[in-house]
């Protein structure tokens, strides 16, 4: 069983999906600590309800120390609205994954987060969008892609309805990616991630 640390900034629906995945979904890992850069993030309450240590911390060096003190094997950025530094990336090289609510490389990078992504999708008029799970490197939304899934965008959609569709997909592919990581089935070659059966 691998030790998982989850970084969050908001309500924590992806966090809840991860917790459920470790309990009922066959993920061979345990969420040991949840850290938020927002003191009032509901995700911290979700952690407490599941007897997981919940920490409010804005200092990145302390975040790294906390993760290391829990012997974390995998760091999951689940709606963590803060760009992490190269120093943080180096501390957990190829052990940090992020979920992003678009099909990278579209609608991603600095400034693209939360509802802003979905509004950009509507404004641009694309016919499909989706979610991406990727390894984290030194640039925002840039690391090797583990998994993607699409959803359709209709003329009746707005940013809110697209967000709901994408969130369902996020929960699915984030858990699938964590499961594969915990089973040591992911390998990185350049920008490509291979799933080893």
Structural summary, described in words:
The protein is an alpha/beta fold. It has six helices and nine strands, in the order E-H-E-H-E-H-E-H-E-H-E-E-H-E-E. It has a seven-stranded mixed β-sheet with strand order 3-2-1-4-5-6-7, with helices on both faces. A two-stranded antiparallel sheet has the order 8-9. Strand 1, helix 1 (13-24) and strand 2 form a beta-alpha-beta unit. The longest helix has 24 residues, at 159-182. 39% of the residues are buried. The mean pLDDT is 96.
Q: What is the straight-line distance between the termini?
A: 19 Å
Strand fraction: 25-35%
Question: For the residues shown, what is the average pLDDT?
Answer: 96
Contiguous uncertain segments of 5+ residues = none
Radius of gyration: 16 Å
Number of extended strands: 9
Number of helices: 6
Helix content: 25-40%
Shape: globular
H/E series: EHEHEHEHEHEEHEE
Strand order of the largest sheet: 3-2-1-4-5-6-7
Largest sheet: 7 strands, mixed
Q: Structural class given helices, strands, pairing?
A: alpha/beta
Give the arrangement of secondary structure elements.
Elements: E1 2-8, H1 13-24, E2 29-36, H2 42-49, E3 53-56, H3 60-69, E4 74-77, H4 86-91, E5 96-100, H5 115-124, E6 128-135, E7 145-152, H6 159-182, E8 186-189, E9 192-195
Parallel strand pairs: 1-2, 1-4, 2-3, 4-5
Antiparallel strand pairs: 5-6, 6-7, 8-9
């Amino acid at each position: 069983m691998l030790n998982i640390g989850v970084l969050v900034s908001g309500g924590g629906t992806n966090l809840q999906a991860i917790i459920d995945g470790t309990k009922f979904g066959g993920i061979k890992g345990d969420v040991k600590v949840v850290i938020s850069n927002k003191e009032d993030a509901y995700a911290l309450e979700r952690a407490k309800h599941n007897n997981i240590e919940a920490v409010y911390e804005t200092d990145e060096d302390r975040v790294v120390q906390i993760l290391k003190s829990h012997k974390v094997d995998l760091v999951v950025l689940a709606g963590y609205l803060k760009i992490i530094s190269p120093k943080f990336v180096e501390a957990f090289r190829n052990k940090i994954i992020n979920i992003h609510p678009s099909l990278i490389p579209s609608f991603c990078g600095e400034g693209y987060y939360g509802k802003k992504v979905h509004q950009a999708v509507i404004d641009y008029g694309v016919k499909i969008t989706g979610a991406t799970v990727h390894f984290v490197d030194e640039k925002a939304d840039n690391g090797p892609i583990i998994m993607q899934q699409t959803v359709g965008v209709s003329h009746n959609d707005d940013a809110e309805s697209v967000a709901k569709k994408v969130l369902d997909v996020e929960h699915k592919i984030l858990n699938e990616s964590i499961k594969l990581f915990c089973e040591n089935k992911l390998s990185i070659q350049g920008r490509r991630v291979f799933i080893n059966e």
